[in-house]
Amino acid sequence: MAEPVTSFSRPRVLSGMRPTGKLHLGNYMGALANWVRLQDQYECYFFIADWHALTSDYADTSQIVQNTQDVMLDYLAAGLDPARTVLFLQSKVLQHAELNLLLGMITPLGWLERVPTYKEQQENLTGKDLSNYGFLGYPLLMASDILIYQPQFVPVGNDQTAHVELTREVARRFNQFYKLNGEEVLPEPKVLLTPSPKLPGTDGRKMSKSYGNTILLTDPEAEVRKKLKTMVTDPARVRRTDPGDPDKCPVGDLHKVFSTPETLAKVYEGCRSAGIGCIECKGWAADALVQVLNPIQERRAQYSSKDVKDILEDGSDRARVRAEQTMEQVRAAMQLTPGSQTGR
Fold it and tell me: How far apart are alpha carbons 86 and 321 in whole angstroms?
């Protein structure tokens, strides 16, 4: 008979990304860099959410395989280690779909409709028909992705906390209905807030693929410098002799994240006194970005397509074993297993 969840020596965390193409600096600073740090403290499960890509990109699936490979290469390039972390592909662990189906039976429709990103994406992605069941239900699939591994924490930024709260509510509702030998099966995961510095794109807005304003982790040095040359700056600096304010400049925001304290001091002094021009300031920012990107690109070059395939296969096998342990408990608690007994 399945046993209730037991504790582990290290707390478990789970997170993932959709395969929508090569990752950019915003993805790195917002998630990947933190995931790499977590490997030493937590039992980590990080995955590529290819089913989630279908919720909005169902009409054209031609790039999902290539995008999956690119994202996994970026995971590895950032420093995720398959020897210390379970790296896997969502669609290779069918237990995600099974738990999603079962949780769908108990989740009120209103819970899904109130998720902030549901209406936001419908308003922003006007070129796509998102009036489909999969898009409405994607927060529950996300909850299933999390709960199937019974993690203690989910590392997210502030903009994703609503999804974790929904996950907690779903777990709570399941545990109210079903127990295994008197014990709760699905622990409520806590938010592990990811430090996420403000990282503007080349047009000054948040760095995002949908805006076409990104600096990719794979961009060579020449491309980085080219992109930064056209980056918007403090609108008050119309002429070279006009003083500016790095606190009102997207390039200044990049310096705050990537430049040394010495360079940042030169930026503040030179910009506010009009002692330097924007081109020189952008050059310094490019120098700092290249220092970050070079080791990432060097690690990326060490992995082949076969390496990615093997890592995903191995990680998905490991994830499947852990997911099935949860599903055995879930089926028993719901009395879907012959001879199962619960302490309800």
Answer: 11
CATH match of 219-298 with 1.10.240.10: yes
Q: How many CB atoms lie within 10 A of CB 76?
A: 20
**Considering the entire predicted model, what is its pTM?**
0.92
Burial of residue 258 (number of CB atoms within 10 Å: 0-12, 13-18, 19+)? buried
Please determine, for residue 116, whether its predicted confidence score (pLDDT) is greater than 90. no
Helix (H, G, I), strand (E, B) or coil at 18: coil
CATH architecture of the domain covering 12-199+304-333: 3-Layer(aba) Sandwich (3.40)
Q: What's the CA gap between 266 and 341, in Å, rounded?
A: 69
pLDDT band at 85 (very low <50, low <70, confident <90, very high): very high
- The number of helix segments (H) and strand segments (E) in the chain equals 14, 5
